[in-house]
Amino acid sequence: MGGVHLDSPVLIVCSYASPEAPKLFVWDERVQWLESIEVTKSALQQKMLDIESEKELFSKQKGYLDEELDYRKQSMDQAHKRILELEAMLFEALQQEEESKIEGLKMEGRLSESLTEGEREELRRAMDQWKRTVMCELRERDAQILRERMELLQLTQQRNKELEEFIEAQKRQIKELEEKCVQTTTVQQLSGQVSSVWIRPGGPERIPGTSSSPTEGLWVLCCQPIRAEPSCQLALKLSCYTFLECHCAVSQ
Known about the structure:
This is Janus kinase and microtubule-interacting protein 3-like. The chain is α+β, with helices and mostly antiparallel strands. It folds into 3 domains: 10-80; 116-176; 191-199 and 213-252, no CATH class. Helices cover 61% and strands 12% of the residues. The chain contains 3 helices and 9 strands. The chain has helices at 29-103, 110-114, 117-190, and strands at residues 10-15, 23-28, 198-199, 218-221, 227-228, 232-233, 236-238, 243-246, 249-250. The strands form 4 sheets. Strands 4-8-7 form a 3-stranded antiparallel sheet, with no helix packed on it. A two-stranded antiparallel ribbon has the order 1-2. It has a two-stranded parallel sheet with strand order 3-5. α1 packs across α3. The model is unreliable at 1-26 and 194-252 (pLDDT under 50).
């Protein structure tokens, strides 16, 4: 009993059936507490799932209602526009009737006689509003066309810029290739003007007709490709004065 440590309150029941072998019945309250937590957790998770389902259903219903609202709004706008158009037509007919009366034509004046001054004023305002609506729609359409053309112009300019950069890169490559071809042609044309030079390995001996040894720099005028033994390592360089510089390192 002295070696048992419990972190939470427990109920220990001792039953001595016999003095030699006492029995201990331990009932830990932590078990019931953890079980209640698990039950509560499961209930909360189920509640959250139900809330998510209701949220999705509400979102769908809201989407349907928004679409229905937009449709009805468009229908009302079209109906209002149609009403304005009919009122404008009526006002125009009224104006034509008045002009016909002024010119002395014999026409029935039922329309002008059946309208009061207030109704005529309302028709005039409807006519003005209809004109403003039509002009607004025309301006919006023109603005949309202008935006589309500006976007197309920007895309075209960007494409032209990319093509110009590509052409410049191709020109640079062509120029480099032409320079290489000119250098190769110059070397080939001048390669037969002097005899070939033989460089042999073996010590710092002088090359006949020069003051240089095989280990020193040797300048020759536009010679053919220098021939050397396999043990020699050569490096040729074409300078601005069309000279070839030869460096020979004798391998031991």
